[in-house]
Specification:
By secondary structure, this protein is of the alpha/beta class. It folds into 3 domains: 3-120 and 278-359, FAD/NAD(P)-binding domain (3-Layer(bba) Sandwich); 130-272, 3-Layer(bba) Sandwich (FAD/NAD(P)-binding domain), CATH 3.50.50; 363-426, no CATH class. 32% of the residues lie in helices and 23% in strands. The chain is built from 9 helices and 26 strands. It has helices at 13-25, 47-51, 64-71, 130-133, 140-163, 179-197, 226-238, 331-344, 389-426, and strands spanning 3-7, 31-36, 40-41, 62-63, 74-77, 80-84, 89-92, 95-96, 102-104, 107-110, 113-116, 121-122, 170-175, 209-214, 242-244, 249-253, 256-259, 264-266, 269-272, 276-277, 295-296, 309-311, 316-317, 362-366, 372-378, 383-388. The strands form 9 sheets. The chain has a 5-stranded parallel β-sheet. A 4-stranded parallel β-sheet has the order 15-14-13-19. Strands 6-7-10 form a 3-stranded antiparallel β-sheet, with no helix packed on it. The model has no long low-confidence stretch (mean pLDDT 94). The chain binds flavin-adenine dinucleotide (FAD). Residues 7-13, 35-38, 44-45, 47-48, 79-80, 117-119, 137, 179-180, 279, 281, 313-315, 329-332, 334 line the site of flavin-adenine dinucleotide. It comes from Noviherbaspirillum galbum. Keywords: FAD, Flavoprotein, Oxidoreductase.
Amino acid sequence: MQTIVIIGGGAGGLELATRLGDSLGKRNKARIVLVDRHPTHFWKPLLHTVASGKLDPQAHQIAYSAQAAEHGFQFICGEATRIDRTKRCIHLAALRGDDGGEIVPARTLPYDRLVLAFGAVTNFYGVPGAARHCLTLDSVEDAETFRRRFLLSCMQASARAADGSGDGRVDLVIVGGGATGVELAAELNHTVRTLARYNVHSLDPAKGVRIRLLERGERLLPHLNPALSRRATRHLQRMGIEVCTGTAVASVEHDAVIDGSGVRHPADMSLWAAGVEAPALCTTLGLPLNRIKQIIVTPSLQTVDDPNVFAIGDCASHVSPASGIAVPPRAQVAHQQAMFLAEVLARPSGDALPHFRYRDYGSLVSLGPFAAVGVLIGGLSGREMLVGGTMARLMYGMLYHKHVLSLRGFARTVAQGVAHWIRTKITPPVRLH
Ligand SMILES: Cc1cc2nc3c(=O)[nH]c(=O)nc-3n(C[C@H](O)[C@H](O)[C@H](O)COP(=O)(O)OP(=O)(O)OC[C@H]3O[C@@H](n4cnc5c(N)ncnc54)[C@H](O)[C@@H]3O)c2cc1C
């Protein structure tokens, strides 16, 4: 029986492990193994809502072990540190406890076929001080760190204003006017007002927290239609968020972000959301990579030099043969590639492999709890439809439910939706501690 190992249980990897477990694992046709460095899965597009305190990540995490037991695959918790393609084995780091003591020693794991699905990390583009001083949104831990720091900054500024030792203001700079930066800025505006309502701070909600969004390009949300970028910009400005386009960041210090013209943007906190690159593990594989270290794959999602190794999602670079353009690092892509590989890997090895074709269904960007903008692409003609407002926000919310549906089935998705709705009725709209 062959062993198929998937490294990374994110948007792509967990859906793939679930499908392959159901089709091959449960019938003993192959051993399916999922490796992730965390014990639970969290859907990354929701990280900005964790950072803003709107969502409790505990309630939306899926335990890999439970998913594995129900869907016929094995889960191993560990961080892949090296892949030996000659011996076809993966090296996993030792698991350590909170005090640093070794819980499980370093191990190796053999494979027949391997799927790399370990996502991407923040790209600081070598900007001096950025990695040291900016927070990021790569994981639940990052989002929780941001949330706590933001809450404490508001409380501290409020206390200092009360005793006359401060000006009663928090300066937050978000670098990057893509979807992550825009969505976080909009959510935080709502958070500041809610925290004031619950007397967590006494800052003026309109002026007490200055959120400044710096974007190198000429407009926010460069992947969307210019009309939608203008709409999103107006929406954020109405909320009091300062939008600075055409502003490239030259360096970051502990209390300021400095742009290419030498302007200092004061920052009690700064967050870097200006792009991604594949993790350093990619550079150890001896496989061809693109300029952001993503693994270059063939039209069948196999790595160029090794037909037994596949790559999907953010760590892979797949150029669409139709457009000649690399598919973007998005959950939608990871999902479609996982569905494709679930079919391909279920075939007997040796069969000719089909080609993956990405279908773009559009893109939605949330502008806080009550609005979103985006474009939907549908029908045979592939016609684009611009959407906005509350309707678009409802559609945005459905994207997460679609992901849960593919992992947990209809009944549990509905139950989780109802539980979430009840929680919103019995707890404050934002986490207060
Ligand atoms: C804040 C934010 C908002 C976003 N919003 C959207 C959105 O609105 N729409 C959209 O389409 N996309 C969005 N994205 C992008 C989307 O989340 C990614 O494209 C998608 O998650 C990629 O899926 P993946 O399976 O490639 O990787 P991930 O989902 O990133 O999963 C990677 C997994 O690999 C594990 N891992 C990493 N390294 C190792 C290792 N060495 N060993 C073991 N395990 C490892 C990680 O723990 C993780 O579980 C957003 C991303 C962020 C950060």
